[in-house]
Amino acid sequence: MAGRETITLRATGDRLQRLGFTGNALSIDSATLDGVPVAASVQEDVLSFDLPKPLARGRIVRLALTYHGRPARGLSGSATSLYTTYFACDWMICPQDRFGDKAAFSLALRVPTGMDTLSVGRLIARAPTRDGGEVHRWKAPRPYSPYLFGFAVGRFARAGDRIGSAKLSYLSDVADTAELKRRFAETSQMVQFLSDRAGAPLPVSEYSQLLVEGREAQEAATYSVLGVDALATKADDPTEDWAVVHELAHQWWGNLVTCATLQDFWLNEGITTFMTAAWKEHRYGRAAYDAELAVARGRLDKARAAGFDKPLAWDGRYPNLATRRAVQYSKGALFMDHLRAILGEDAFWAGLRRYTRKHAGGLVTSMDLEKAMEASSGRDLHPLFSEWVSGADNASEPPPPAAPAPAS
Ligand SMILES: [Zn+2]
Hints:
Helices cover about 30% and strands about 30% of the residues.
């Protein structure tokens, strides 16, 4: 792929001498800062641009880049489609793990005529190019964290639905319109349920679900990528619809209300894992909720048996993806269930609504959830949060090394 990118940025530190982004396999062909050439270098997974002179705090500048190459990660596809998954900073220049650095995003995709595209926000323009292709321009409705940037190109069957003023779009290169309608028949009810629990409507005017081959389950800013093997084989199977509701729940928890740093990643994933169980309770009954949390308990028990249990906001590195998920996803969900049991239905859900509405579009730490739950219940929850979340009393061991791993 080949791309041209412009990043408008503001210096938040004083005398900034270098701009750092996630290193990737792309080759930088040109780089300028406000029109002045800057040199790019890669060292230990960091792509840097050395500035000709230091930037003062608050200065706003434009970094303009052209690049080409074959991304090492973050792109999948079939004979008739190409779509991104999680590693945005492998196909563009951005900081992958800086969840707190939300940015406005627009993307113009140059594609062969007749191709369908999907990206963040809405398709705002579509124009032919001189060489017989087309450019599709997409624009995000609000700033999002870089890991949520993405796109898809292909020949897709389509189906759709509406809920309130929001449009739901279903696309696939492996299923026809009838199958899309059947597989995503419950999405609108899920939106209704999650909106009620969040105390806020679906945060986007158009939400899409892209159905692909395999086991994919990945949220992007305003859409999700779902693999056929991650979905139920028959409708009404309460054991198998987690992926649709989990990725949809990220529209509120994760994408709209985002952990400021990876330390509080459990807020993105523990809450969505819990909300998956809550949807199942709403849709299929209490036994389905209990079953979902039993899965979480089993995963946490396995990590504990291997001698690895950490507070939810532990800031070290996990030995592997399964262990990290056992804490941030599974234990996070179990903590939400525990809070619900302790606070009771009214105070718990009021606390979740307060947390979601207050921080919509912004960044959160565990303290924000603690404060919201305290405000709704009138109780001092600091001891409970210390025990489960910050682990204030626990000494941390030196972390084992591990490769960064994707969220979903
Ligand atoms: Zn997730």
